[in-house]
Each structure stands twice: as C-alpha cells, then as structure tokens.
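[audit] Reproducing an earlier prediction to check determinism. Same input, same settings, fresh worker. If the tokens differ from the archived copy the diff job will pick it up downstream; this log only records the rerun itself.
[audit] input (176 residues):
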Amino acid sequence: SFGTKTLDKAPEMSESTRIREGYFTEFAERVQALDSKVPIQLSGGFRSRTGMADAVDSGVCQLIGLGRTAVLNPDIPKAILLNPSVPDTAAFAPSHVVRGQWFANMIPVKVVGSGLAIQFFYYNMRRLGNGLKSSPDASIPFVIFQSILETFRSGFSQTAESLLQSFPTSRRAKSD
C-alpha cells in the first residue's frame, strides 16, 4: 500500500501492453500461483505509472522495483510516479541511453563487453552511497577509467598503510 499516496485505479491496458512493459510479468504470475506468503517484487521494464499500477492491481506482484531509473533519478517516485498532480500521461520513468557504448562494442568477448554498460550504473550507485548525485552523462570509457584509477588508489593506500605499520616506530615509542 502507498498509504496516503494511493494511486487511482490504473486505466485498462491490453494484455500485450502489460507484458511488454514489465519484462518478468509472466514469471511473476507463475510464482504468484505458488500461493506463497512472501511478497513479490517485480522489476525490469516498467516505465509508466499505469503499467506499474496495473501489475500491482492485477495481483501479479505487491511491489515494483525501479532499479536503474532510481539510480539516475532517486526522486522520481516522489516527484513524478506517486505525485497525484502529474497526469498519468506524463507519469513515466524515462529510459536512459548510456554514453560510450562504442567502447563496449570494441571488446571481443561479448560477455565482458555487454557487462561494461552495467558498470555505469554501479558507478552511479557508488556516487549515491558517497552522498553525491548521480552522473547520467558519464560514459563507459570514463567509468572504466575511474574504476581502474580507484583500484590503483585503493591498492596503493593499502600497501602504504601496511608498510607504515611494519616499521618499528611504534615499538620505540613504547620503550621510551
């Protein structure tokens, strides 16, 4: 339940539209048939308030996960999707095209190459976790470079700390 921020009944959507918006709706329906007491969260592909409300109203799930959309715009549920002053036709979570896909396409191993785009979202999750705003304009090459730089910086910091702790200065201070 959304408490005081309840949504009115979503307009009717055709079955094909509902399935097209929520990638895993069919799977969630099969899980729901198991009659479990555990609430089901459905994520993947949701863009419109009406598509999300339809999934919840149909009983196929109890929660909607926004994932990547919320990483890039953490305020979107409050500002748009749950805001009754925003009409249904304007209440949607826009998709985002990650810049620098050409870099991922250059990687000959497709498993690695296709996994580079997700690094963009991991990078933005780390930014949010550090109290910073998301950077939707960051590109895959920039994110990879930042990741490599951070790995070196972290490794250097740990190595320097280990070296400093190995010096006998703390023993001299105790014997004085």
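[audit] rerun output stored. Observation attached for the diff report: The CA atoms of residues 104 and 116 lie 6 Å apart.
[audit] end
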